[in-house]
Amino acid sequence: MDYSIKIGGEAGQGIVTIGDTLAKVFSRKGYHVFTHQDYESRVRGGHNFFQIRLSDIPVMASRDKIDILVAFDKAGIQLHEKELTGSGIVIYDSSALKETHDKPNFLDIPFANLALERGGDKIMANTVAIGAVLGMLGVDMDILFEIIGDTFKKKGEDVIKGNKDSATAGKEYAMTHCARCSFSPAPQSGPKMLINGSEAIALGAIASGCKFYSAYPMTPSTGIMNYIAGKEKEYGIIVEQAEDEIAAINMALGASFAGVRAMTGSAGGGFALMVEGLSLAAMTETPVVIALGQRPAPATGLPTRTEQGDLSFALYTSHGEFPRIVFAPGTPEQAFYLTNKAFDLAEKYQIPAIVIFDQYLADTQWTYEGLDLERIRYTDYRLRGEALQKLPEYKRYVFTESGVSPLAVPGDSKHLVVADSDEHDEDGHLIEDAETRVKMMDKRLFKKLPLIVSEIEPPVLYGSSSPETVIVGWGSNYGLMKEAVDILSKEKSIAMLHFSEVYPFPHPPLNPLPSREGRQTVPSPLAGEGQGEGGFMSTLCNAKTAICIENNATGQFARLMRAETGYEFKNRINRYDGRPFLLEELVGKIKGIIG
Fold this sequence. Notes:
4 domains, Pyruvate-ferredoxin Oxidoreductase, domain 3, 21 helices, alpha/beta, globular, seven-stranded mixed beta sheet
């Protein structure tokens, strides 16, 4: 079983509500679900759609063929009718669209009239549509009724009953009038968790002990702030909507300096305002986690679309040389665990950590059996209370073998904690001499960096262990690439390498950074778990064809790969129109290269 449903209409018509509700019903019924949406940057009008894929096996990408199209506007039919499968069906309300389609694959359902007759209000037309889809698929209504009860419990029993009756009317009408409906859902398993990328990053922050989150709303990062704000009282978190992104990162740094785990987030345009604060975090060695949501740019670009155009920005922005971590999760599950790892390493090494994602990952919903909280790391690396009080003296930036100095909480002991954005000595007081400058740079950069590199995991290898073709990508293309390998492996020797821990790059650079004594200070084995001797670079170099897949115009990850390893991709697949790849589209492009 593998069905795709698309709901299309104008902004303000409740497209997301319908899609979300259906996705919840299917996931709680035990089906595997994947959703993605496409919407314009306007409150009313335009054309948006929400696409749901449900299956009896795990699914991680959207397909380009639709089995059921729910059309709430004329554009929905004009744009998406051609996407129907041979047995696909369009359901619509001719009275609302003021047009009738006399074709065998169209089903005219009077959404508004049924809502008025059975529910008592035309506003329940969307609930009729939900019931109609469930009727076409042969899915019962028990879970939907639970959702209706939870959603409208504050509005009273009349509203709950009206929506239940409207959903029933839609189901009955579809079952009676849809002669072409031949959908047969697979047996159901236990209910599954349904989660998107934004929620997963937020949950990862909460699980990591984040106690302060500051941000200015900017798509696609706003969902993180909204989710954490909804858990403020439950977990004792302060969420501050700052006046701008400059204030947001400085608030987060202040909270971190004061002794709590802190985070901020924005899109690329807001992150541009944060870069001075990023450098401040590096100089003062103040841990902070930043969620960087990518969307098409420059400037405002396409505010609600997706792109992987900010990787170089995350890697190289801000003045000065200092270590940073960049994680690029490819799934909500990875987003959850990597956000936790970002908090852990940011505090352990007293550096900024960036979790970079995009609009596509932020909005896509995936199903899981659950998340393993046993994998969550939490170590309080700060000196507090009695442990701090016992020290005979305290120097914030004392030189150590690892480069990591004791991180004390101000006001928690007799010791004074000093931090300075100027170059400083071990006590934290500003200096001007060359010798101290060099020692501090070595401490912050060369001593910490090899330790950080040792914490970075190699890319995921999926598919053939000795592939003739390797597809390589990062971030949100994980699911698309994985399913493409599943399809192509029936005929080809193929595998994927997916990078989610992007920087420091997960193996020695081509020219490792020397220390002052000339030692090679970035040693790390190439071999990763399950990747054989020689690791992922051996897999890549031994392949006949390697293809780098990215949602940007210039191949930013391919450039990073060349800079770090010397490896140059001869084949690249790039999409930069603000839309994600669809599964068959990507498979076709890969076939076009490998033949």
